Amino acid sequence: MNLYEKHIIPYAKTYKKTLLSTILLGTLTILSAAMLTFTSGYLISRTSERPENILLVYIPIVAVRTFGISRAALRYVERLLGHHAVLKMIADMRVHLYRVLEPQALFIRSRFQTGDLLGTLADDIEHLQDVYIRTLFPTVIGLFLFSFSVIVLAVYDWKFALMMALCLSIVSFVYPMLSLYLMKKNQQHSKKMHSQLYNTMTEGIFGLRDWIISGRKEQFLSAFKEESQASHELDKKLAFWQQSRTVQLQIFSGLLVVVVGIWAGQQAANGLLMPTYIAAFTLVTLPIVEGLIPISHAIERLPAYEASLKRIDLVHEYRVDKISPLEIQESVSDATITLHDVSYRYDEQSHDAVQRITLSIEQGQKIAILGKSGAGKSTLIQLLLGVLQPTHGSVLINKEPAPHYGDTIYDVVSVLNQKPYLFATTVENNIKLGRLDATPEDIQRVINQVGLTTYLQSLPAGSKTQMEETGQRFSGGERQRIALARILLKQNPVVILDEPTVGLDPLTEHSLVETIHDALQEQTIIWVTHHLMGMEKMDCIVFMEDGKVVMQGTHKELLATNDRYRQLYEIDRGI
Q1: Could you tell me which CATH class the domain 3-316 is placed in?
Q2: Which pLDDT belongs to residue 326?
Q3: How large a percentage of the chain has pLDDT more than 70?
């Protein structure tokens, strides 16, 4: 299906009455301008004959006023109606795009760069309003004006009308096609450069701290300025072509005025036209040609629209099949996870981030995923959550592919990461996010489980104590315990612990590890970490390196059979 048929025509059909009214008003606006100059030319010529009574020119005077007022009024209503319709369509497009994106929320990072998505939401949708305002309306109005002008002129002289049709075709067809041919690559390149700017800007914002810490801030700013300057230069080139084309067409319209003036003079000399109509026919040429000039710019923009439509279509073409809530509810108390020959490769990477991993995790098992930074641990977590889809193999939760769960994956799996987000509300409300219908007794139960009872009782407001944004008034260990209480309240069968003890002092870390194991005895634990504290409590240890599993077994087995693991364990314990 054509991209225009897919993303433009459906909205045009929905608002067809408003669009047709806008086109009609636009046509009447230009015709009013044409009749204004035609009547003015006739009035000037007629008054130069010094009529005996002003009543003899009263009708042209009234007509000039009528067309002058109607031109302004029709233009105002046409712009008001046209922009109203287009803004309504753009609003509908944004809503539809959001509804398509929302189910893909977990997968967006794996499918789009943030800059591309920002460009789609901010730039591409905005471009599509130009499809109507700067392309559809001017083109349809211009073609109608072209046909109307030639037909009316043919009533007086069909041979001259044919010649004028050829001349007007230069403005209506030749220049637009020439503009499209000459500027197509530049339009596409401009669109690509704008997209790259969005990517560079978002990467710079998200990585601002890294740029500053590494001392490469000036390097980033310099690179961004170079890209911005290159984009600006290309835009200037496009603008120069548009301005030069407009000047050329205006000069051409001046030549047409002279040609029409000569023709009108000859017609009057032959007695086929009243002399008072010479100025009328001559002047009416200007608004007609001016109504045709925008067609060139309208057609020239087509490559930019196609690029925007392709990016929007890329968002629409992906669909996520979700399991029904009933099926998830039936299996929420028990979850078996199976990874079969799983590999994943990021776009534009030459090697797999995760390679050929096969693993089975039964309900209640305690699994540790070990490895240094870059070993593939975070990628594995995203695969388990369905955020990424394997490039090879499968990740199944209760025999269903993880990506099929969509956002309902969090009814099965809970995540406690390095920095759990806590809101600027009470401790109780932050815990209650785990289950909104929880009773005070439920909340107190999980507070007891995570060992916060004594601490909260020491506070004047207890569990009603207000937390600052991200929980800054509490220590790192206390924040992790509050987040753990939230997870316990939700009672999901699987809990992923992503480096939850990073940044804690050894005593707090040891205490938190003990609390986690005591509180999550019934749940499946997938503990992702880079050091070996608490490994003796795990049922299975998986050691990853360069995306591969290089060690696997229980703590006792690895201590007994693997020298490297034994050395790492001794180093970690400070032996």
Answers
A1: mainly alpha
A2: 41
A3: 89
